[in-house]
Amino acid sequence: MVSAIATALSLSGAALPGVDTLRKAVIAPAEGASRPSGSSGDNRLEGLIRAVATLRDRGAFAELFAYFAPRLKAFMLKGGADGDTAEDLAQEAMIQVWRRADSFDPGRAAASTWIYTIARNKRIDRLRRERRPAMSEEEYAAALGEPERADDAAERSQAETRIARSIDELPEDQAMVVKMAFYEGKSHSAIAAELHLPLGTVKSRIRLALTRLRGLIQDLDK
Amino acid sequence: MITHRPPEELLLGYAAGSLPEPIALTVAAHAALCPESAREIRRLEGIGGTLLDRLAPAALKADALDRALTLLDREDVAPPRPIATAETRALLPAPVWPYIKGDLKNLVWRRRSADIDTAALIEDGGKRSAILLRVKGGRPVPRHTHRGLELTLVLTGAYCDAANCFERGDIQVADPTIDHQPMAQAGEDCICLIALEAPIWFTGPIGRLANPFVKL
Q1: Predicted pLDDT at A222
Q2: N or C: which end of chain B has fewer CB atoms below 10 A?
Q3: What pairs with residue B191 in β-bridges?
């Protein structure tokens, strides 16, 4: 049904019948409900980004927006933005998705990873007022050398599913510091200060968590 | 062959967006030369992506989607990445190009001693900075210690301190516990990208005299 809306959107231009479902998903998002489950769901998100890149498909964009914009807003709120700023930053990140869709390469990053890097950069630009010396997708490609195998995208989305599951399985103290690092953009010492923990404790919790999560990813890289 | 890579903490800081700009710049410039670090950052960003995916969504305003759709056709006002000259590409990794508009001619080299020149990339009221440091081949950098974190990325030539040698792409992390006197290897000038959290403090006899005048 959603793809029917997508087709209608891209054929009919700006004033769009059938977009109501997506509008509702943005205004009253249900956790997990709007995502197609399993690795086919990841493929679907990647397909939508490619449709934006190659066809400038506004319907595909609306669908991506319905899924990601509420999560991007939540991400910005966790990073310390107020409601209006968080909403603005989510909007700006999604516009960047539209503009830079052609740099997305599903062989190198999952859809959520690529969009995460856009959001992280927006957050630094705005909240820290710093420039972000980021590597572009093209520079990653240059640094990483040889093109990856065609089935990497499928493996990667399986890896994501497994990481997601393993995050749930981390001991609570490890999960908390990893989430503070990524969601709140906090340094090890800022996390230590906030939790009233010795810096060494924070470092070792993060190291344990990453070892576990990274081990899962590396298994799949082989 | 890159043998000195940044500790996991810095790669995570880069992936999570928690590093100050000069440190982030140096880590990005290193990763552009080091596939292993680039791959590791990508893995860590994958954890970030998974965590983004799993956030409980926050409701947007009623017109959010319509507002976004009307903005799609607006022109991108962000300046495009500069096109770097061939000499710039040969010396500097891509993340540095925007800081000099893609052209080495925009570097302002300042003479610090007979053997040392520096050029600022980021200056932040003296608290945090990123500079290029050029040391004549075979010459020492004055003995110094650090009041904060110091990252050094070698771009040309090589240098050694008492413990290790560093070549193009290698990164050295020094903190306030380290008092060292690096020496550029004979031959080519050694050019490094250095990120400083606080000005370095020279500790040798000549260095101490020079301190009031030499703020890197």
Answers
A1: 44
A2: N
A3: B134, B156
